[in-house]
Hints:
The chain is α/β, with parallel strands linked by helices.
Amino acid sequence: MDLxxxxxxxxxxFDPECGHxxxxxxxxxxxxxxxxxxxxxxxxxxxxxxxxxxxxxxAAGFDKDAEVVDAMLGQGFGCVExxxxxxxxxxxxxxxxxxxxxxxxxxxxxxxxxxxxxxxMAERLAKRKGKGGVVGVNLGxxxxxxxxxxxxxxxxxxxxxxxxYLAVNVSSPNxxxxxxxxxxxxxxxxxxxxxxxxAEVAAAGxxxxxxxxxxxxxxxxxxxxxxxxxxxxxxxxxxxxxTGVDGLIVTNTTWxxxxxxxxxxxxxxxxxxxxxxxxxxxVLRKLYxxxxxxxxxxxxxxxxxxxxxxxxxxxGASLVQLYTAMVYDGPGVGARVAAELAQCLRTDxxxxxxxxxxxxxxxxx
Length: 365
């Protein structure tokens, strides 16, 4: 039974950040019932060498310190991405820094990478050894770090043993100067550094998890072309047939406030939720075309239903992620979206979700 509709009026009375901590505490204590989960084989997929029971993942930002990984996998998500995590612990920006835009089914946050650091996360993830489920780790940089690549290298080396994949986050709007790292030259420096670090880990007998890059929606056509080129391996020393990264996460939150109704719309920070769906999906379409379908894309931004997830997949996403929908529909939304997605796929005659990836871009019915 989904209890969230019953407790939602109470939760929504609390400050959003307080509500978030309450949710984490309830999940840690096993107080959140597990929803019915779809085991439909149409949802099974293999992306960047990893098997996913379903393509609906939890986006970074909810479980910043890997406190409730197994609880969220138990909520029906096919993957949980933890973080963003920085080498040193940091408190983030001043409160209040999280705002519900109820009228828009959106959220604005300016959290500022508040987290307990890579050592604490490594300790938590080490305790999961032998457990199932796909866990990605989203890497950030500390606010006071001058040479960004150093922080991403530290995070990659520390967490590679425990991550099914790593995501380099250069697209949060809440760390000064971070989005400038999406420009071609700094992006090449960061990715080259992380790739070299992971090669060292592999050479020493460790595991080299797939490397992803998370980008912003507020980019020009030239920015997207540069990101696509770097992601495919231009300016990076890659072997023939290889790419610079193993996938792209499209997109992070937006600066845009177009069409918002909530009185909180003037708050500073990144906006996520339903109003982001259209623009983030358009960026996804463009990157699928720019990368010629050679890179797996993870579609993020405004997903609140299986139909939304299906649209992202048809636009070029091999996987999708959500977070803000949980604020309004509870943690069981992942299982519901997966079940609805399965129905969409079967209605259109697809046997496996991978068959639907990019069909709209290819002109397939």
